[in-house]
Amino acid sequence: MSVAPQVSLSVHPDRLLPPQPEVRDVARRIYATTKDLPIIWPHSHVPPQWLVDDEPWPDPASLLLTPDHYVLRLLHANGAELSDLGRGPEGPLPLDEAAARKAWRILCENYHLFRGTPVKYWFDTTFTEVFGITQMPSAATADAIYDEVAEQLTTPEFRPRALFERFGISVLATTDDPLDDLAPHRTLAADPTFTGRVVPTFRPDRFLELARPGWPDLARRLSEVAGVDTGDYAGYVAALENRRRYFQEHGAVSSDHSHLDAGTEPLEEGEAARIYAAALRGDVTEAEAVAFRRHMMSETARMATEDGLVMTLHHGVRRDHDPDNLARYGADAGSDIPLAMEFTDALRPLLGRYGNHPNLNLVVFTIDETVFSRELAPMAGFYRSLYVGVPWWFLDAPEAIRRFRGAVTETAGFYRTSGFIDDTRAFLSIPTRHDMSRRLDAAYLAELVAEHRLTEDEALATAHDLVTTIPKKVFKL
Amino acid sequence: MSVAPQVSLSVHPDRLLPPQPEVRDVARRIYATTKDLPIIWPHSHVPPQWLVDDEPWPDPASLLLTPDHYVLRLLHANGAELSDLGRGPEGPLPLDEAAARKAWRILCENYHLFRGTPVKYWFDTTFTEVFGITQMPSAATADAIYDEVAEQLTTPEFRPRALFERFGISVLATTDDPLDDLAPHRTLAADPTFTGRVVPTFRPDRFLELARPGWPDLARRLSEVAGVDTGDYAGYVAALENRRRYFQEHGAVSSDHSHLDAGTEPLEEGEAARIYAAALRGDVTEAEAVAFRRHMMSETARMATEDGLVMTLHHGVRRDHDPDNLARYGADAGSDIPLAMEFTDALRPLLGRYGNHPNLNLVVFTIDETVFSRELAPMAGFYRSLYVGVPWWFLDAPEAIRRFRGAVTETAGFYRTSGFIDDTRAFLSIPTRHDMSRRLDAAYLAELVAEHRLTEDEALATAHDLVTTIPKKVFKL
Amino acid sequence: MSVAPQVSLSVHPDRLLPPQPEVRDVARRIYATTKDLPIIWPHSHVPPQWLVDDEPWPDPASLLLTPDHYVLRLLHANGAELSDLGRGPEGPLPLDEAAARKAWRILCENYHLFRGTPVKYWFDTTFTEVFGITQMPSAATADAIYDEVAEQLTTPEFRPRALFERFGISVLATTDDPLDDLAPHRTLAADPTFTGRVVPTFRPDRFLELARPGWPDLARRLSEVAGVDTGDYAGYVAALENRRRYFQEHGAVSSDHSHLDAGTEPLEEGEAARIYAAALRGDVTEAEAVAFRRHMMSETARMATEDGLVMTLHHGVRRDHDPDNLARYGADAGSDIPLAMEFTDALRPLLGRYGNHPNLNLVVFTIDETVFSRELAPMAGFYRSLYVGVPWWFLDAPEAIRRFRGAVTETAGFYRTSGFIDDTRAFLSIPTRHDMSRRLDAAYLAELVAEHRLTEDEALATAHDLVTTIPKKVFKL
Among partner residues A4, A12, A334, which is closest to B458 by beta-carbon distance? Predict the structure, then answer.
């Protein structure tokens, strides 16, 4: 559509800082104190096997484009076929060079679509800061950039462990299925040549959705893996508790949960057992399954008060909005769409029971911005267990982050928020994502200083806490 | 209430641009490249007969005040009677000079009510740039301004066609009833002395609301005009398709739709036929009528995949909120009030069927800002057919437009939005409305440049696309 | 958590004004014209008895910390026990010096929690401007600040009446129960040594909630106090009207209402009478009680059209979200959480009847920001009776106020808003709260001037109206 006359690519040292000179100077001073601090990364979708194998990534597209639904979606909207971007029915496909180059070319010739999005910001920064690229991606430069990236990926400096170290990652949390034996985590922990900390996260979503096809089989597999009979509700709960312990023994600090709504209404024990039994027989209604899942959210909080796993919520997305896209490319292929959320009444049963328990940390993320000032900040400003998660997914972007701080801080301050979490599959964008967050916090704090709402000393102390003491406290690291 | 000490009126060349000097300079450079480009105007409520007749407008109030419910409402809130502003039971009345002067005076002496609103901005600019007025409207200046405007309206330079040309309008779309024979459009197209492009828009709302009083008669009239028997559902669909073709033959590029909610759930063919038959007998329930109308939204999308008419949605307004105002002054008299909207689930049935169809362009407008970042931008960032309409009605205002760009761009970029649409009845405000949009886009892009998120070259290319290639692509012009 | 290296405390003369020099200069000029104007304070929770007794406040914690749930909540979230902050089961407790010092110390050593919140802003300003404190509150300075404040509280200059005068309060409205005999107001009115105007506000919430435990007894007490038999619905209405008159005779200008939703659907007279009779027998359902309360909102508006009391709405809060906190500390102890609101359809029955009545002024407050641009501004821009209340509670904060002006002004202008209202229990924060509002209005108006949307003369006139003519008109003062 548009031909960019620009051919060179570079990133500015003051990017994302406030343009007004007096304010920018304050922001620069704040940012200078946090930019080199280690990265605490308590929620990601990076495969731990990458770090176990420490193999070179095969090509630029397979690393930077194909796995990342943030990128795929806008190319799809503009007409690209996901099959031309390396996706098959089960997710990313192995690509030969021609296919990888073709996918890469589609990205580069449509680079203008990403103007104003964080995807472009992350790419610009990754290209320049990680790979030293100096050309703006376009149809004309696609092959040259491909070659340059591909060549570097063959070098030892670009293997996963080398980058893990270069990026200064102090903790990385992966996301894992309760059935997972966590072998990669064990291997990494036992490997004296790898000094990083990589911990699993307990993600039991599919075990809590009793009406999903195949659930009875899941319950049986849970039984086998946990060594606990899941033939009744009590056994099911015990099996989940067992797997939580297993995850904790392998370093897990949190469980993660993503469902359609935030309901937490508990059931009577007998009713939970009855629904569970019906589900095992394949005889559960949709309404019963929803009631059970909400019950299990409160039950999960109860477990957390006992074992101390931090509980993070990522609710409120209509997954696979496009049935055709799901049929052709499976889940996580770009068509998840957010829904309006309600937390005040939905979380009340849970918070009324456990909201001030010293062992529970509950971090709530959302893509519905309207709840930040209306619901989450007021609740986090009262309940000891509740922290407001930083902007998630579509909202992990400069202006959305600015709006988040504007909506949350005046009610809950800085100390009831979670610290930065990126939730990404894009390993190479980690430093720029954390750096973006630090720049934006510096920018926000500098504005408060410029309006004389904080002293610069207070701003400096707060910026430091936001990337050190706060995430460590929230995630018990 | 307040006496403005200000007596002179002028507009500043840098209005709406960022005040910070470094950023303003960038914005000026961007704006300079778009400000004189032709106006593409794909949705309006301007009567095409004005251009056919090319008669002088009778007086300032009848042209600038009485037809414009954006203006009437705030005067009403402050105590003015709509009858004193030129409105009768069926809309604007012909005014004698005394009545026109009286209405005009009410506007001028209440000019302070509009401070901070775009109405004042548009008036200020229209007064100065179109009429060369140099006095601030007030009780003291009302008559003098009336005289000055009235005199100019008698000159050839102020006839509709002269202004159409002076304003640089390349395309104007009117809004028309399916029964309309589009005679004015035919006349204009056949007139060698008029070189503008004026196209109709197919607006079938009332034909899709089966429970409204008088609907069976509408169905009969549709049958007559289309020459298709609407005695059953299949005939009704065929008649609508027939009229769409007629509109296309007269230049139409889009159909426009405004209902209470955004539902698109299709019905089984038999159920649609059953409800239709019941409605013809005057025996339809409110719930059936709603189900049928939602079905017809999907059906309209199906028609669009076949004939290619762009589909625009303007849903979510409680029309005629004040029953007394409706009884006294009819529709469009200022008491329409927006409602909270849901699009993610409402549009899913339609998008699941046609959301990636190459022939469908679906542009969604809203007055509920909360859906921009949560629903519309994520959907437009995936579905090929869907574009986010720029801010509509109450949101067609400087700060709301800034919020729109802030909410949409980070998820959907610039290229999944519609380009500027004004939706106005106020012919003389067209240049200032489009100019406002161009200034605000320049301001937003300049901010991105100032924060080093875009290069200036990228910003320039994007600004150009926003008023050229983007609206042409979205509206198939 | 964080140790602030900062030890000195001061407030900057330009605080909250825009940092950009050219814009700040405009804001300074605007603010200079409003900063010393008298304070009109039409809604508060200050006990009138304070002014009757004019006794010294006992200690810093009892005055500044213990009664203020804005402050308690964040300390609670961070782990403090409300009992250590001076709260008992019925609210604030009398504190001995050790307890007061302990509570005070908890505030000071957690002062960093409030960074970025208006609580810190109000404290900073109150400490410096009212008490002349020059040390930043912290663990190290807690006792010294306590001593300094405590000593000043013993002086005549710090008694309630002296501060009332020093603060320049022209009108203060308290909030009072319909059964209240308003003795303090009578005493103050009769006292020639007190020249301030202190008026009651009629707050009948609990009389309108028929399903609440103890309601039949309330109806009986209402009967006794009003001298009207409340044995049937007609008597109940007459008794409420009687008490409204009593309040008006004691200076009241408004009634205030806070319920879960904004519904106003009227009932048939017979149905209202039937539900009322059932409630007297203790035999009312929750649904009937809700329907009756909504009916009474319209009925209250009808009363207002007759007696002229301004009607203010503060709906939409889930009171006492934490049942444990309610059980231990009673109401107003920090766990109230807002809910999403709907006003367009909820207020329609009331507005359709009385929305343009010359005697009704209806001021709507909300904590759900999403309704500002979508519902409240459009309605206030049409209905003569409706005014948009300025940001309430959690939204009474610098950025939220900026968002409010941004969301409301473009549709409703400045003249359909309420003027500043603080709704506070914190007597000493009154000047800084009103001053904050004036600074922020100056800042907003200066931005409009800087973007050439208003002239400076217009901005000056508007700023003046916002603290003089507008609140006087809205509250009939």
Answer: A4
